[in-house]
Amino acid sequence: MELEPHLTKLFINNESYISVYNPANGQLVSNQIPIAGEQDVDEAVRIANEAFAIDSPWRRMTNIERQMLLLKFADLLEANQERLAQLTRVTLGAPFHPFGRSEIGTAIGCFRYYAGWIDKYGGQTFPADDGVYKIVRNEPLGVVAGIVPWNGPLASVGLKAAPALATGNVFILKPSEKTPLMAAELGKLVLEAGFPPGVFQVLTGDGSTGALLASHMQVAKVSFTGSITTGKAVQVLAAKSNLKRVTLELGGKSPAIVFDDAHLENAIKWNVNALTTNSGQICFAATRVYVQEKLYDRFLEGYIAALRAKANVIGDPELKDVEIGPVVDKSQFDRIMGIISRARDNNEGALCYGGKALGEKGYFIEPTVFSDTIDGATIYKEEIFGPVVVINKFHDESEIIARANDSKYGLMSGVFTQDIQRAIRISSAVDSGVVGINCISTISFSCPFGGTKESGLGREMGEHALRSYTEPKTVLINLNY
Ligand code: NAD
Predict the structure, then answer these.
(1) Which residue, 30, 223, 284, 385, could crosslink 160 as a Cys pair with Cβ 3.0–4.6 Å?
(2) Active site annotated at which positions (predicted)?
(3) With a 6 A CB cut-off, is 432 part of the ligand 1 pocket?
(4) Which of the four pLDDT bands, split at 50, 70 and 90, describes residue 16?
(5) What are the CA-CA distances from residue 178 to residues 143, 229, 331, 333, 335 (Å)?
(6) What are the residues whose beta carbons fall under 8 Å from the beta carbon of 394, sequence distance 6 or more?
(7) How confident is residue 155, by pLDDT bands cut at 50, 70 and 90?
(8) Ligand 1 atom with the shortest distance to the CA of 332
(9) Is the pLDDT of residue 440 over 70?
(10) What is the spatial distance between Cα 187 and Cα 190, in angstroms, rounded to a whole number?
């Protein structure tokens, strides 16, 4: 039998395997996903460092050749998007429309966007005003490990691999143990695109594999997306090993502030989509909504009506008209249902909509709305990472800025108003990496994305990401002799 090339490229000499299940029905998808162990990680890092050697094909590639490679890879992602989405969907549960297509679109867009940067990020020069001519070169770091979560497995690859490779690094992807299938398929596309061996590798595994990469002495950087707890652990491992560079994209509990003068339908549309896309399992989902007094009742009524209208698009993610699938797995389902029932039992707020599990099989949860929540309550303060929102009333601008900022998170916020001066004022006052005005829970390729406070460290996307994958080297040329 002739094996497909990617099957012989996986590191499978370890004896541990992960099992993955379909969250739409609870059935086993595979119990054969390899966990890369110490030997595997060492081998991948060794091969990556060889691929990064100064005289390697990768380092000798011209800008145009590297651009063509990234663009070809983007084309391959596009051509294979339905297959890639399906491989994610059978373990994540998100339907192709709107989430599957959009997360793959993010990955494709990242490779195209960063291909355009390849010949435009060389560095700077400064004149020999003092007799010394100065060159500042943006040099690649070396081996970059991308450790990604399950909720946007391919988008995360685009956000990390594209800028890493555009700046000349070599990249090792460690997908989440919950959604590993698409990443294994990516290996095949890497070969088809023609990346030199060792430039773009995939190591499946769980947290232990991630920890091996984060603590490896020959890995120069780890770009991590995931929970705050793991992000902190990754930073400790990085510091305790070789002080490798770290980018952290962590959690959020993003506030949306809706003023009395907001365009009501627009505010409802953005907020409801933010909660229902990928069943609320999005780091920058608007899950803490504040509405000014006069608009509050109408907003709440409209928000709930919009959720009710979506009730018939929740279901089997394989069906064409379904837009909202299950949450990722049983542990996530149990955690979210536990938070909902404790909030109800402890009177943490008024349950206005949802709150129940749906269907006989799989891990479906109704979009759930709590209003009038207690400020210190878990449902109000903590990231739930599911289809659960808290909606509260506010009185005036100074009060709402303080409340919006009273959080350990700072990933995204949104302000909904038709008063441009107020919108700009609030955008300065809120403490978050991204602020949407009359929109929320969205990103742009050309702009930095990332969080303040415990939502993260560093930025992805835009030119800022290039900075985090390069080290400036200053070359001083003495002309005075
Ligand atoms: P997680 O922290 O459990 O896992 C993320 C990744 O880290 C996985 O690949 C996992 O195998 C790996 N890992 C686990 N332990 C490790 C260790 N000790 N060392 C190194 N790697 C380790 O997160 P998750 O449950 O997969 O994802 C959900 C979280 O991700 C949420 O908090 C969400 O807000 C966050 N998230 C943030 C962003 C962002 O851009 N800010 C985007 C998506 C998700």
Answers:
(1) 223
(2) 249
(3) no
(4) confident
(5) 24, 17, 11, 14, 16
(6) 257, 290, 291, 292, 293, 400, 403
(7) very high
(8) 25
(9) yes
(10) 5
Beta bridge partners of 12: none
Residue 461: CB within 6 Å of ligand 1?
A: no
All CATH 3.40.309.10 domain ranges of the chain, comma separated, are 254-442
Pick the CATH number of 5-249+455-476 from 3.30.420.40, 3.40.50.670, 3.40.50.2300, 3.40.605.10: 3.40.605.10
State which of 227, 248, 281, 457 you would mutate to test the pocket of ligand 1, scoring each by most atoms of that ligand within 8 A of its C-beta.
227
In this model, does residue 370 exceed pLDDT 50?
A: yes
138 vs 62, 63, 195, 238, 342, CA distance in Å? 16, 14, 22, 22, 52
Say whether pLDDT at 337 is over 70. Answer: yes
Say yes or no: CB of residue 23 within 6 Å of ligand 1: no
81-92 helix and 153-166 helix, angle to the nearest 10 degrees: 130
Ligand 1 centroid to residue 422 C-alpha, Å:
35
Task: Return the structure tokens found at 401.
Answer: 């800025």
pLDDT at residue number 7: 47
Q: pLDDT grade, residue 26 (50/70/90)?
A: very high
Determine the residue type at 337.
M
Give me ligand 1 centre to Cα 149, in Å: 4
Residues noted as catalytic: 249
Q: Is 163 in the pocket of ligand 1 (CB under 6 A)?
A: no
Which option is the CATH number for 254-442: 3.30.930.10, 3.40.309.10, 3.10.20.90, 2.40.128.50? 3.40.309.10
Tokens describing residue 201: 């590798």
d(CA 465, CA 167): 10
- 137-150: average pLDDT: 98
* Cα–Cα nearest to 429, from 406, 456, 458: 406
Which amino acid, residue 259?
A: F
Digit-coded pLDDT (tens) for 164-179 = 999 999 999 999 999 9
Cα–ligand 1 centroid distance for 72 (angstroms): 29
Q: Which of 154, 159, 171, 162 is nearest to 121 (CA)?
A: 162
- Per-chain mean pLDDT for the chain: 96
Q: What is the pLDDT of residues 30-86, one digit of tens each?
A: 999 999 999 999 999 999 999 999 999 999 999 999 999 999 999 999 999 999 999
The pLDDT tens digits for 268-280 are 999 999 999 999 9
Q: Residue 374: pLDDT above 70?
A: yes
